[in-house]
């Protein structure tokens, strides 16, 4: 098996013993006159040959190899009935957009009229460039048994890996803005995404933007089925209610009910990402079209998403990736506690303490101190991590002195949006002060912008970090998780207007509480 590259969209690597030049590794087929020698010759150059019982199955096998490895599998057939049997597999590969090469042996060249015949490397290229698909090579019988001097055989250079195309920049921005303004977005992940090795990028998009997703049957596992954002169990509801659908390498054919009502909303906005221009706009008129390789295009999307300031989902994504699974989580705040509850999983019982039944703010640091004391005596390997909104932290911030006095290695993360629910950024704050007395114009939800809460920690000898970018956040998290001795506080600045996703059920919106 070729070793699939772990970096999505990166060049894939192949086994050193794969066939000469073209990296063809597998051939499936049934031999007969005149193609037997082709199978023998293939084995001689290191191609693994699997003799099957029917060309149709051989062709299905070869096409699946193409999908799994990104290099076409070969199906070897005799002319006439053998080739006819292979047609089912060729059509299946063409419909699936999977690379495949079928080699057939026909009668000798002097027995029929032939046009120029497609040479081997060209077929490899055709099968994997652009939209992948099936190709057929017909080798005349007399050609198979032609005697040549071995030394005169020239191997044609392998074609370059398929070129990776990115989408137009403006189309990516348009798609991002459509998603940002959506109420119920849905990613549909298709097998094109699987083929493109886009799993890492798609996973990041799902996590960073908190997007729900639905895999098509063969795209299951691109993002694991047990991911909390997987809506497969509520497929019909998800399709019916989505106001924006992002199609990642999936076609609006019968599998997706043609993208039409009643399975979809009349006014659904479709963002289509596909490598094949002809596919764009099939059945529905898309709101945005992104022509390009899924892995590359999702990377473009991530680059946009990385723009600052961070939002809650970005912050919790990094926290979730970097904190130990068995840590004791303490949390309080409004959005911070609510979004953190879905974004940061707990794996063990009795290891989450939060505002509780009474919805009390100010409990966090006391809870964290208690958890650290108990952990010290019973489970010293467990870390206590306290995730606080900036307002919630203020209720008992001076307990940081207690934490330092007893040298409890608690990690406090303050998710700071300059306010209660939402706040103002420094510029808006300055503008606002022009209106006069702060007591009459400062919004009651606002707290002082860019407050350096981490300095409370450093004031008492712990470590304080002020972070604004995902990289700074990652570094601070890594340093404070590794340092098991020192109390630390990471003050994470996020977009003051960052909000949780819109509530799906109207009776649950804040005005109705
Ligand atoms: P599913 O059956 O999972 O819905 P489809 O076969 O309908 O998937 O759609 C797969 C789509 O993926 C095709 O339209 C194909 O052009 C596209 N595709 C294949 N490879 C890539 C790639 N590397 N980047 C983008 N799109 C791709
Ligand atoms: Mg806040």
From TrEMBL:
Residues 21-120 form the Thiamine pyrophosphate enzyme N-terminal TPP-binding domain. Residues 338-492 form the Thiamine pyrophosphate enzyme TPP-binding domain. Residues 172-299 form the Thiamine pyrophosphate enzyme central domain. InterPro entries: DHS-like_NAD/FAD-binding_dom, HACL1-like, THDP-binding, Thiamin_PyroP_enz_cen_dom, Thiamin_PyroP_enz_TPP-bd_dom, TPP_enzyme_TPP-bd. It comes from the Eukaryota. It holds the Pfam family TPP_enzyme_N. Keywords: Lyase, Magnesium, Metal-binding, Thiamine pyrophosphate. One of its GO terms (biological process) is fatty acid alpha-oxidation. GO terms for molecular function: 2-hydroxyacyl-CoA lyase activity; magnesium ion binding; thiamine pyrophosphate binding. Its EC number is 4.1.2.63. Its cofactor is thiamine diphosphate. Belongs to the TPP enzyme family. This is 2-hydroxyacyl-CoA lyase. It comes from Bubo bubo (Eurasian eagle-owl).
């Amino acid at each position: 098996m070729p070793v699939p590259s772990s970096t999505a969209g990166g060049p894939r690597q192949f086994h050193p013993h794969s066939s000469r030049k073209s990296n063809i590794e597998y051939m499936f087929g049934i031999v007969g006159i005149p193609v037997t020698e082709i199978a023998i010759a293939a084995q001689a150059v290191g191609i693994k040959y699997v003799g099957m019982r029917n060309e149709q199955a051989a062709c299905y096998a070869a096409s699946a190899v193409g999908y799994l490895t990104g290099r076409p599998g070969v199906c070897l057939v005799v002319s006439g009935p053998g080739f006819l049997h292979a047609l089912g597999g060729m059509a299946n590969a063409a419909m699936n957009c999977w690379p495949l090469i079928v080699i057939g042996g026909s009668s000798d060249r002097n027995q029929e009229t032939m046009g120029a015949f497609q040479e081997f490397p060209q077929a490899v290229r055709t099968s994997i460039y652009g939209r992948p698909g099936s190709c057929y090579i017909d080798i005349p019988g007399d050609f198979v048994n032609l005697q040549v001097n071995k030394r005169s055989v020239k191997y044609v250079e392998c074609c370059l890996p398929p070129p990776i195309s990115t989408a137009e920049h403006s189309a990516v921005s348009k798609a991002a803005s459509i998603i940002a303004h959506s109420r119920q977005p849905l990613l549909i992940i298709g097998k094109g995404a699987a083929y493109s090795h886009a799993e890492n990028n798609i996973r990041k998009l799902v996590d960073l933007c908190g997007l729900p997703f639905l895999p098509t049957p063969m795209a299951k596992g691109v993002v694991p089925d047990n991911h909390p954002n997987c809506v497969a169990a509520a497929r019909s509801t998800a399709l019916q209610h989505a106001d924006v659908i992002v199609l990642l390498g999936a076609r609006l054919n019968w599998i997706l009910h043609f993208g039409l009502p009643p399975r979809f909303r009349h006014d659904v906005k479709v963002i289509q990402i596909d490598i094949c221009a002809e596919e764009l706009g099939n059945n529905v008129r898309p709101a945005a079209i992104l022509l390009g390789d899924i892995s590359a295009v999702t990377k473009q999307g991530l680059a946009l998403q990385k723009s600052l300031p961070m939002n809650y989902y970005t912050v919790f994504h990094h926290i979730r990736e970097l904190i130990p699974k068995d840590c004791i989580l303490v949390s309080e705040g409004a959005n911070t506690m609510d979004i953190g509850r879905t974004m940061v999983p707990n794996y063990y019982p009795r290891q989450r303490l939060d505002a509780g039944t009474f919805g009390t703010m100010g409990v966090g640091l006391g809870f964290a101190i208690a958890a650290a004391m108990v952990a010290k005596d019973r489970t010293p390997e467990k870390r206590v991590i306290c995730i606080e909104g900036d307002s919630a932290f203020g209720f008992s911030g001076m307990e940081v002195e207690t934490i330092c006095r007893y040298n409890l290695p608690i990690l406090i993360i303050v998710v700071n949006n300059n306010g209660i629910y939402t706040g103002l950024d420094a510029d808006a704050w300055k503008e606002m002060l022009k209106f006069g007395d702060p007591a009459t114009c400062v919004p009651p939800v606002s707290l002082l912008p860019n407050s350096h809460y981490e300095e409370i920690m450093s004031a008492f000898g712990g470590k304080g970090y002020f972070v604004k970018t995902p990289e700074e956040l990652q570094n601070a998290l890594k340093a404070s998780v590794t340092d098991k001795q020192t109390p630390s506080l990471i003050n994470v600045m996020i977009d003051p207007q960052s909000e949780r996703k819109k509530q799906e059920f109207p009776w649950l919106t804040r005005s109705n509480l």
